[in-house]
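During the reporting period the student researcher (J.K.) took over the structure-prediction task from the postdoctoral fellow and processed the backlog of single-chain submissions. One of the processed entries is reproduced below for the supervisory committee.
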Amino acid sequence: MNLKQNRRNFLKQASLLPLCAAAGVPLNNTLAALSPIRRVGGPKLKVALNAYSFSKDLNDHIKGRGAGMSLFDLLDFCAENNFDAVDATGYFFPGYPRAPEDSYINDFKRRAFQLGLDISGTGVRNNFTSPDAAGRAADVQHIMEWVEVAAKLGAPVLRVFADTQRRRMTWDQLAKGRAWDEVAAWIAANLKECAEHGKKYGVIIGVQNHGDFVKTGEQHIKLLKLVDSEWCGAIVDTGYYMTKNPYEDMAAVTPYAVNWQVKESPFGAESEVRTDLQRLLRLIRAGGYRGYLPIETLSTPGREYVPRERVPKFLKEVQDAIAATA
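J.K. obtained the following structure tokens:
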């Protein structure tokens, strides 16, 4: 054993103790803090369509409620409207939550290639705010299975949730009164397992702010830093930061973004306030983001929703904002 080297290591760690105490950070986290993604070359933006925009049509098809729309029909729609890519949500693959057959994956990937479309990502359902460790472990296993599906698809990012996905139930109700930091710790541990599996297959775990656990950009970043993995980053949902000025949250998280969900309103689907797309694009560019901007339109109760009309309209608005801010 090298006593001199051990002494140097001890003194190095000891010198960090006052800083850690002042910041309230455990020592074992100080030597591995997640940093913003290092990007070069300036912003480069490509527009994708999130499949959830056609949720009803896609669900009708897979559940046998009429013709609806298949994922292959969705590829044709994306090509007809000159999208750069498609974000093929896992829910709409045959047999979900089971992984689809390789033959289906390969046919889907081949057709996307023929149409000049990238597959910008895919996503699954999970609930990590539950105190049920066995339930969370099952969701970790589910995510791991879909990491392998994403790798087969050639999708660089698998979208997962940090938030409660139970209707009419808040995260603290589901977590039975646990403190935010306690719940964040077990979510981070679960996400770290997923990220380690993602590393094996070259798939990044994208954590989306969708619900009421991650309400702010600060919380989003804090959770990612608890995970502390290069294979885990932020999916910035522009409609789900629950603050007075969500653009500030988006700007703060942009350096950690591995993908996006660009929504029509920054205050939720039912809000009449439209997203200021030029403001959004300026902050994305200022953050040097290079990659996909999946867009998503949503139906709301009491309003007519025709995605074949709504999606192209929103796509043009986003494309115009990209051009105006270039």
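The committee noted the following: The longest strand covers residues 44-50.
J.K. will present the remaining backlog at the next meeting.
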